[in-house]
Every structure is written in structure tokens, then in C-alpha cells.
Amino acid sequence: MVEVLVMNILGIETSCDETAAAVVRNGREVLSNVVFTQIPLHRPYGGVVPEIASRAHVEKITEVVREALDRFAALDSAGRIDAVAVTYGPGLSPALIVGLNAAKGIALSLGVPLYCINHIEAHLHTPFLYDSGEAPAAERDVESYFPALGLAISGGHTNWFSLAEIGEYETIGQTLDDAAGEAFDKASKLLGLGYPGGPKVDAIAKAYYESFGSGPDAHRGWKASLEPFPKGQPREGVSQLAGLSADLCVSFSGLKTALLRYVQKHGELLETAEGEACIEVPNVGSVSVELARIVASYQEAIVGAVGDRTRTALRRGAFRSLIIGGGVSLNSRLRGALKKIAAEEGVELLTAKPKYCGDNGAMIAALAYYRQNLAGDEALAADVRPSLEV
Ligand code: KG4
Ligand code: ZN
User: Fold this and answer.
1) For ligand 1, is residue 178 a contact (CB within 6 Å)?
2) Cβ–ligand 1 contact at 32 (below 6 Å)
3) pTM exceeding the 0.85 threshold for the entire prediction
4) Which pLDDT score is estimated for 1?
């Protein structure tokens, strides 16, 4: 009889503002996934406050891990945890410490190995996750999707990687300043739309786009109406490129400045005045047409830059697929644009289920099945690595 090997890994993630734990079987099948989001705690400050994040992780970590283990036990009463995996970087140091210490304690008490995992790498594994009892969206073995172009796009990162196989990665492009998510969040703050900005910008831009109707004429009309914001293309030869090619990198600082100038000059146009034309946006409310136009223009500049660099990268390498992960990969316009680009360039696009796009423990547990940055005594002695690179 052939013995089927089963490996259940408990994954713990506390690198930013989500306290998360999950149990994943054999690197893909999610048996439990618990995420406690701290967004309401940070909202008044317009961004994540490390000290608040750290305290909230301390308060929540036990409950979140217990819940993940209980849900796993409810599915598989005879199942056991074979290893513990944890994010040790990159991220906020006081936040990472909470998860790493909890994971060390749990691994020691269970008498199982501890694995330290890179958060960005884990985001790139999310399209392979599927819920227990469901069929996976990426049907084949993980290895068959490589070599792949990886795009990790979140609040802290915007990086393009050439992924030869699992664990063999090379950075080929990146942002020279703000990450795409950060650019969304900063614009949202400036326009008084609240935190986190990405989902609000996405919803407003979508409502603006839809206000033009459908069909090619509507698309042309919408495109023509947009404010010509800078397209995020760095100049060749600037020192921040650090040896990377400018046509595979983005820079969003000029875009941010252009938005600030616009607001300083035309701020009154963005207000919702009595009798003025407005657009109703789900989960946001009523916004002036001009505000919606500016938000859509800003998003389009980011999507245009990311799409353009992705197409260039796809043309430059021999890739079987395009894998995207991270919170910004939820952006509906970006997903649509990358889907079109992948189809035109003849590669398969792999995206995660929405619930696995933001930070979660499942991606940490899943990647640990394939790859561990640190294991054994080295992991038990590890310190956090806030600036860890892939
Ligand atoms: O991956 P993630 O949860 O945390 C980090 O590792 O950063 O990403 C959070 C980021 C935030 O900047 C948030 O505004 C952005 O993802 N985001 C979006 C959308 N949903 C979340 N950005 C654009 N469009 C969205 N729909
Ligand atoms: Zn993340």
C-alpha cells in the first residue's frame, strides 16, 4: 500500500496590522484561516502605528492561534500539527517580534520544527491556496507554473521577480520610492477619503468608469476625460535604480506631487456642493464628479505604470505564468489590465482568492511546505528581520 504523506503546518503572521494564524495541509489546502484586522485601530491616524500594532498583536495572538487550531480540529479531529511557520520579515519590528516569539513557544511546546518565512515570498504563493473541500483554481502541480514572472504588490512593496522555480528568485524591477498601496493610501488621505485608501480609490474609480456606460465609445470617453498625471516612469541612469533597468521600475513620487498640486490649485472643485453633479459610490457615499475623475486618473496612472512594466518584463523573459500577490492585487482595474496583458503575451495569470490577497497566516504555512528560510535551531534562535529581502 502506498502511504500518503500528510503535513499540517500552523502559520503565524504579525508583520503589519493583521494578527493571523492558519493551518494548511501539504502547502495548498487551507484547513483553517483566522485573520484579526487592526484597521479600525489605525484609521484615526491615517496609517499603521507600530506601537499600537504591536500591542494589539500581543492582545490577540493567543485567541487567533487558538481559533485556528480549534477550526482545524473540527475538520480533522485526528490531525496533528507537524510544524510551525512564522513571518520573520520584512515588516514592522515590534509587530514581527510578537508573532516570532509566539511561534517559538508553540513549536517548543508541541515538539515540532519551526520555520521562518519571508512575507513577500509568501504573498507570491497565495494563488496556489484553496479551501479544504474545494477544487484548486490553479489545478496543476505548483512546479508546472514555473518559470514565472512574480509581481508582489502591497502597502509595503512593489517588486517584479523572475521566478525560475520555487526558491530561486531574482528581483528584476521595483519601485524607487513609494509602494503602489502606499501611493493609494497617501492619495486617499490627501483627498480626505480615509484609510486604507486602496479599496476606496478602487470603488470611486469604478463608479466613475461605469458612469460612462459600456462599449468602446464609453471607454474612449472615459479615457479622454482623465487628468494627464505622470506615468511613474523613472529616468535611465538615476542612482536609486541600483543596477536595475529603468523600464522595469516605477516611481510614484512625481504622481503624488502632481496630485498635491492639483488639490492646492483646484481643491474647491473636489467638494460636494449643493446642486453639483455627484456619483453614488458603494461603501463610500456621494462624491463629486470631479473628485471621482481625479481619483480615477490617479488610479489609472498607477495601473498604467504597473501594467506597462509587467508587459515589458513578460516580453524580456521566457515565462509560463504571471503570478500576482499582495493587497493591491485586489484592485479591480489592475486585475482587468493584467488579465488582458497576460492574454496578449500568451501567459497564464494566477491571482489569489480575495481573502488571501491581504496579509494572512495561510500563505506563511503554505510556503513553509516548499521552502524555509530558516529551520531547526537556527529558526529558534532567529531575530526578526524588518528589512529582509527576497
Ligand atoms: O498585502 P497587504 O494587506 O499588506 C501589506 O503587506 O502591505 O496590502 C495592504 C495594501 C494597502 O495599501 C491597501 O490600500 C491596498 O493594499 N489595497 C488596495 C485594494 N485593497 C487593498 N489597493 C488598491 N485597490 C484595492 N482594491
Ligand atoms: Zn503583505
Assistant:
1) no
2) no
3) yes
4) 55
In a domain, 344, yes or no: yes
Ligand 2 center–CA 360 separation, angstroms = 8
- Mean pLDDT for the stretch of residues 357-371: 97
Strands 321-325 and 348-350, how do they pair? parallel
Asked if the structure places residue 385 within a domain, the reply is no
Classify residue 157 by its DSSP letter: -
Q: For residue 358, which atom of ligand 1 is closest to its CA?
A: 3
pLDDT band at 274 (very low <50, low <70, confident <90, very high): confident
What the block records as the C-alpha cell of 160 is: 517584479
Domain total for the chain?
2
Within-domain flag for 144: no
Q: pLDDT tens digit string along 82-123?
A: 999 999 999 999 999 999 999 999 999 999 999 999 999 999
Residue 15 included in any domain: yes
How far is ligand 1, taken at its centre, from the CA of residue 359, in Å? Answer: 9
Torsion angle defined by CA atoms of residues 293, 299, 300 and 306, in that order, rounded to the nearest 10 degrees:
180
Alpha-carbon distances, residue 55 vs 17, 58, 98 (angstroms)? 11, 5, 9
Q: Is the pLDDT of residue 270 over 90?
A: no
Evaluate: CB of 91 within 6 angstroms of ligand 1: no
Task: Name the pLDDT band for 390 (thresholds 50, 70, 90).
Answer: confident
CA of 85 to the centre of ligand 1 (A): 23
Q: Is 364 in the pocket of ligand 1 (CB under 6 A)?
A: no
CA angle 47, 48, 50 (to 5 degrees): 145
Which ligand does the CA of 352 lie closest to? 1
Q: How remote is the CA of residue 48 from the centroid of ligand 2, in Å?
A: 13
pLDDT at 275: 76
**321 and 365 belong to one structural domain:** no
Q: Are residues 42 and 168 in the same domain?
A: no
Domain of residue 33, residue span? 8-137+355-380
Per-residue pLDDT for 273 more than 90?
no
Whole-number Å distance, alpha carbon 328 to ligand 1 midpoint, is 4
CB of 17 shorter than 6 A to ligand 1? no
Q: Identify whether residues 131 and 169 lie together within a single domain.
A: no
Q: Which residue has the cell 513571518?
A: 87
Taking the C-alpha atoms of residue 358 and residue 349, their distance in angstroms, rounded to an integer, is 18
